[in-house]
Amino acid sequence: MDDPVIAGVRIEAGRRTDLELRPARLPSGGWMTIPVVAFRGPRPGPTVWLSAAIHGDEVCGVEIIRQVIGSLTPRKLAGTVLAVPVVNVPGFANGDRYMPDRRDLNRVFPGSRRGSLASRFAHLFMTEIVQRCDVGIDLHTGSDHRRNIPQIRADLTHEPTARLARAFAAPYTLHARLRDGSLREAARRAGAITLLYEAGEAWRFDTEAIRVGVRGVRRVLAHLGTMAFADEEDTDADSVVLESSSWVRSPQSGLARLEVDLGDRVADRQPIGVVADAVGAGARTIRANRTGVIIGRNEAPVVHRGDALVHIGSPAVSSAEPIPAREEGEP
Ligand SMILES: [Zn+2]
């Protein structure tokens, strides 16, 4: 079989190949480049991509990929790993979630060759990376001052996806429908199984989020037979499966004082904090809107009425209650 070629670069077996994708030119003339590190083993196996910073301010995943890259030995690999630590390169350089054209890159997939800047990035990523892959892991963090407990979000009704989610074994696994325009949806259409890892907060390193992410990615690679890791013997670790989730929104504008943290269990209607104005007047109790576990939390105290405060996930449908529609889309 001929060696695969990505962006004009031959990916030889048994070695690491560093290359760049060139989605567009800078206004000043040089190229914007997306760095890619390809590891191709001497033995056949699946092709897996790892991506982070599709939202430019989500840096935990960049560190996760850096650590995973450091633990891969090309000679020992079966198949190929394509590591893309920063997809939204301009956003990453500016600390910006979005692309310079103000688009959310995770809403424009699969993109088009003749579309907006974001759309061209998405198209290039699809054609050069996703379309050659069997599996992908896309790494995210909370947005807008929200902090997430380490969790996999995946379509758990799709059995191959659910199996990989179990292999990752994040502390929590949330069933999440595919969302239009997301990388996850476009990748599924292209035939790749995709996991989305959500952990930590934008623009910060979160030690636990990074540790769980590195371990989870390596577990998936071990599960796929891509590479064995000496320290991944606990691959059957448990994950709490959450079938649905919703955000508690602020009942009014003011300063929110939350009394629950990530991982806390709450009962429906339980008081979880107070929101009052700057002089403490008009305090209103914030209550849980379901029974479950806190998987996301707003860390910014100044809130407007309707702002998302706390994300609660519920393990299973316990009664005849319908599953409420998720209020939050693809992160
Ligand atoms: Zn994100």
Polypeptide structure, described:
The protein is built from six helices and 19 strands. The chain has 331 residues and is an alpha+beta fold. The protein folds into two domains: 5-240, Aminopeptidase (3-Layer(aba) Sandwich), CATH 3.40.630.10; 247-314, OB fold (Dihydrolipoamide Acetyltransferase, E2P). The strands form three sheets. Strands 3, 4, 5, 6, 7, 8, 9, 10, 11, 12, 14, 17 and 19 form a 13-stranded mixed β-sheet that branches. Strands 16-15-13-18 form a four-stranded antiparallel β-sheet, with no helix packed on it. Strands 1-2 form a two-stranded antiparallel sheet. Helix 1 (60-70) crosses helix 6. It starts with a strand and ends in a 17-residue tail after the last strand. The relative contact order is 0.13. The structure holds zinc ion. Zinc ion is lined by residues 55, 58, 140, 143, 331.
Kindly state the percentage of residues in helix: 10-25%
Overall average residue pLDDT: 93
Please indicate the count of domains.
2
Query: Can you identify the CATH superfamily of the largest domain?
Result: Zn peptidases
The top-level CATH class of the largest domain is Alpha Beta
The poorly predicted ranges are: 318-329
The gyration radius over C-alpha positions equals 20 Å
Main sheet characteristics:
13 strands, mixed
Name the helix and strand elements from N-terminus to C-terminus, one letter apiece: EEEEEHEHHEEHEHEHEEEEEEEEE
Bound molecules: zinc ion
| Number of extended strands | 19
CATH architecture of the largest domain: 3-Layer(aba) Sandwich
What share of the residues does DSSP label as strand, in percent? Answer: 25-35%
N- to C-terminal distance: 39 Å
- Categorize the overall geometry: globular
CATH topology of the largest domain: Aminopeptidase
Give the class from helix and strand content and strand pairing: alpha+beta
Q: Count helical runs.
A: 6
